[in-house]
Amino acid sequence: MGKEAVRDQLHVFLGGVTEYALEEFRPLGVIGLGFLPGNGVAKILLGPIIDQEISSIKISLQNEFNLIMDYSEEIAEGNDPDAGEYEDRFLRSDFFYQHYEGDRGDEFEEVMMQRLEEVAHDMAPLVEVETDDFWEALEESYDRREAEEVLKYHFSFTDKIVEEFGDGLNIRFDLGPISIGYTKEALRVMPKAEGHLRREIVDRLDEVYGEREGEEEEKLEELEKKNEELRKELERLREEEGDGGDVEGDGEESGAEGEEVEEKTRAEEDADTKNEAGVEVDEPEAED
């Protein structure tokens, strides 16, 4: 289906994540007052800044997936690409990696490069399928269980980042001369948004693979119906063939009886001829 079609659907997924994150974002949580009412008013006041920050995360993830699909296309074409050629650009594109200030940077890089490899290889089969529909390509490439595992795994990445590297993240935005950190709120919202997406993906998979199973059941029922019709037709032909055999047998028996009558008639005619010629014919003696 081509990398563009897969990439576009991945962007749709990301759009759903960031849209949900935007709805869940609590401005008062940025300053540690998220438990207080008034987030609606705060969203109005800080709306442009919140939109900008969420958009930054979205653009970062989109750029990340664009690079992944470039790599995936090379894999699908059998070019044996070098992931190292993508490393610098890929790391620069990741929002969370760029905001990491901890002392485990090398480990973070390894996790990011593993993500590049895994997503690219898992999307490569879809790139090879001759269709422009993402879900059709997914069906052709993976069964129901595999499809769910692949998509849920790749859209659980933020959970992994929060768990392993959350302590070293420092996410901030500027409000005039003031720099305000919102790491805690971002790490609360993004995993939650991914969780929402995973639930939507499962529902979509149920629909897609359920339709396919329904079509397969209809085809199976149709085949069974045709088999039943063929079976009945075969039985009818056998019955007709059996009736023909009985008639043929009766014919042979009738023919034998006819020959016997004919021979008896000839014998009687011969006897009459001899009588007319004056030849004595011994009559059979009557039994006492």
Report what the structure shows.
Residues 240-262, 279-288 have a biased composition (Acidic residues). Residues 263-277 have a biased composition (Basic and acidic residues). By secondary structure, the chain is mostly helical. The chain is built from ten helices and two strands; from the N terminus they run αααααααααββα. The chain has a two-stranded antiparallel sheet. α9 (157-165) packs antiparallel against α10 (183-276). The longest helix is centred in the C-terminal third of the chain and has 94 residues, at 183-276. Residues 245-254 and 276-281 have low confidence and may be disordered.
Q: Tell me what portion of residues adopts beta-strand conformation.
A: under 5%
Major pleated sheet: 2 strands, antiparallel
Average pLDDT works out at 81
Number of helices: 10
| Shape, principal axes of CA atoms | elongated
Uncertain runs: 245-254, 276-281
What would you call the structural class?
mainly alpha
| Number of discrete domains | 1
Spatial separation of the terminal alpha carbons: 109 Å
Share of helical residues? over 70%
Question: Looking at the chains present, what oligomeric state does this protein adopt?
Answer: single chain
Order of helices and strands: HHHHHHHHHEEH
Radius of gyration: 43 Å
Strand order of the largest sheet: 1-2
- The tally of beta strands, per DSSP, is 2
